């Protein structure tokens, strides 16, 4: 690896990077290279890695393996990508040079990017920036177009099971005015912190905001095509009162429910 950077003053780190290495010296070299930019969480075993993932909002994972531990690293990556709670996280795999089996194994295990050693500091940083920037663009996209529609289209196929299940449960309980984040976590059979972390990784909205967006999306559809009265729709999409529904609707659409309905009928 290139000469390590000396830590310098600057803006606070905003991304959490988990380093999983079989060798503590390797972890130390990566910390020297990246700690001036990112919050780093170094671990040496898969069990330590999953403990960190449960406790912290990790944005990217670096798996660094030597020749003798490549298979273990690829198994760890495959396991990550098979778990709905963590499959969305970008994985950067560091592998020995000139090893075709390692390159193929990275692809088969679901790693987003692999880099051969010896590492170039600039190359490593550029790859991390690109992976995090792509994830940020995904989140921005979902925030703009409303994450929960009848057929959510996540930018990465790994997100599909989680988002489809979340969407189905929200739509199934949409008429319940008491549906909230606690209820969602119970329905999803996951902890409240995990639900917040997972949704935050694909959207800038909170779980409660996503429920509200889903209610208003359905209300807009019913107003335009359902032939229902406004007071009926208020109950169908789970608002406590017509006044609260009207305020929320105007905030999202810039029109009152009546105005929206009249415009759709033209």
Instruction: Report how far the terminal alpha carbons are from each other.
Output: 65 Å
Residue share in helices? 55-70%
Low-confidence stretches: 1-12, 141-155
Overall tally of domains: 2
Name the strands of the widest sheet in spatial order: 2-1-3-4-5
Instruction: Give me the CATH architecture of the largest domain, please.
Output: 3-Layer(aba) Sandwich
Describe the largest sheet.
5 strands, parallel
Instruction: Please state roughly what percent of the residues sit in beta strands, choosing from under 5%, 5-15%, 15-25%, 25-35%, 35-45% or over 45%.
Output: 5-15%
Total number of helical segments?
Answer: 12
Q: Write the element-wise H/E pattern from the N-terminal end onward.
A: EHEHEHEHEHHHHHHHH
Which tags fit this structure?
five-stranded parallel beta sheet, Rossmann fold, elongated, alpha/beta, 56% helix, single chain
Describe the structure.
By secondary structure, the chain is α/β, with parallel strands linked by helices. The chain has two domains: 16-141, Response regulator (Rossmann fold); 147-265, Orthogonal Bundle (Arc Repressor Mutant, subunit A). The chain is built from twelve helices and five strands. Strands 2-1-3-4-5 form a five-stranded parallel sheet, sandwiched between helices. Helix 9 (207-225) crosses helix 11 (242-253). The model is unreliable at 1-12 and 141-155 (pLDDT under 50).
């Amino acid at each position: 690896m290139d000469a390590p950077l000396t830590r310098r003053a600057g803006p606070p780190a905003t991304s959490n990077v988990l380093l999983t290495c079989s060798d503590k010296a390797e972890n130390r070299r990566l910390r020297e290279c990246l700690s001036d930019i990112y919050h780093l969480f170094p671990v040496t075993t898969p069990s330590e890695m999953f403990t960190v993932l449960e406790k912290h909002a990790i944005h990217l994972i670096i798996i660094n393996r030597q020749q003798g531990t490549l298979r273990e690293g690829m198994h760890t990556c495959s396991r990550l990508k098979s778990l709905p709670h963590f499959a969305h996280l970008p994985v950067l795999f560091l592998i020995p040079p000139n090893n075709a089996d390692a390159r193929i194994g990275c692809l088969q295990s679901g790693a987003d990017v692999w880099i051969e050693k010896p590492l170039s500091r600039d190359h490593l940083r550029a790859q991390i920036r690109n992976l995090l920037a792509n994830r940020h663009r995904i989140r921005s996209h979902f925030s703009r177009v409303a994450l929960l529609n009848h057929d959510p289209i996540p930018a990465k196929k790994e997100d599909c099971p989680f988002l489809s299940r979340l969407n189905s449960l929200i739509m199934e309980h949409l008429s319940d005015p008491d549906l909230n984040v606690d209820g969602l976590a119970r329905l999803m059979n996951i902890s409240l912190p995990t639900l917040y972390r997972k949704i935050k990784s694909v959207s800038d909205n909170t779980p409660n905001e996503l429920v509200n967006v889903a209610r208003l999306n359905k209300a807009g559809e019913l107003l335009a095509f359902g032939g229902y009265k406004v007071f009926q729709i208020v109950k169908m999409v789970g608002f406590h009162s017509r006044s609260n529904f009207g305020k929320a609707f105007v905030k999202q659409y810039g029109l009152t429910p009546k105005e929206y309905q009249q415009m759709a009928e033209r």
